[in-house]
């Protein structure tokens, strides 16, 4: 298969991420084939297109402003805040059948976990306060507002070490990893934010209180739209999206570790500490999140310019397919074993200047 020689265009990011939303909107209002089309898009089409379209190996231009990229992030963030409300409305609509309601809830969770999450992740890494706040609002609406703290203050600092709840050691299956990733991430982020405030002369409102207030506002909206059933549906959608978030962290760091140094610290983060994929369509769908090594090296680099380092570990499957495999730990461990063994035999990259 030949490789594409140009970076992913902005139009591809926009089309890939936005295309499921009209299907979900129409399906939530009228049911029928729109919902099944949205489910097939999120569940199967991305995997199929990744097999048909060439891999992307080239890099986007660096050092440029990307107003279209920022506009897409803002649009995705705002749509992510509205979509759960639409799903609650549809799932409490007696005109929709039980299977249609299940498809609406499941597909909404997929979109929020696979597309809204990368968008919010990009936003919390931006310098502008308005963008960070939008990213926080998206996570809080998904009842995982603390991810904005644990990801930036804990994961990026301690990735690929035992101190990072989001990094899975070799051999640990996803379902054993999940409780520590979720509960441990909450606690680690709380400690990091509290420590920051203890050192500050103007600490302000604790972010965890902000996350709680935003999440309660989201649940109040769910109750207004659908009563107790609306709240239950919103929580179910949020939990499904959270599962996608934790699966992404699990897959992108499984079995990769930073070597301890004589002084007790760990070696600096390098390209060897994240798994990457080069598949064209899922890269567009996930806003280049599969180019994960470069993100850890340059957290503020805009997603259109993220690169695929030659010495970075590469998964043979698109990220959504890898996440699906990870749901079955024995299969995941068996398939990952040769890739970890090969990586262990390769020489480490030279230290960066």
Task: Summarize the model shown.
With 353 residues, the protein is an all-alpha fold. It has 13 helices and no strands. The chain has helices at residues 10-18, 20-30, 33-52, 67-91, 98-124, 129-141, 147-158, 174-199, 207-253, 280-285, 292-297, 319-326, 329-345.
Topology record:
Layout: H1 10-18, H2 20-30, H3 33-52, H4 67-91, H5 98-124, H6 129-141, H7 147-158, H8 174-199, H9 207-253, H10 280-285, H11 292-297, H12 319-326, H13 329-345
Description:
This protein is mostly helical and 353 residues long. It has one domain (10-345). Helices cover 64% and strands 0% of the residues. The chain is built from 13 helices and no strands. It has helices at residues 10-18, 20-30, 33-52, 67-91, 98-124, 129-141, 147-158, 174-199, 207-253, 280-285, 292-297, 319-326, 329-345. Helix 2 (20-30) packs antiparallel against helix 3 (33-52), helix 2 runs parallel beside helix 4 (67-91) and helix 9 (207-253) packs across helix 12 (319-326). The protein is globular and about 65 Å long. The two termini are 35 Å apart. Mean pLDDT is 91; it is low at 1-5. InterPro entries: AlkB/XylM, FA_desaturase_dom. It is a multi-pass membrane protein. Belongs to the fatty acid desaturase type 1 family. AlkB subfamily. The chain crosses the membrane at residues 35-56, 68-90, 132-149, 208-237. It comes from Fuscovulum ytuae.
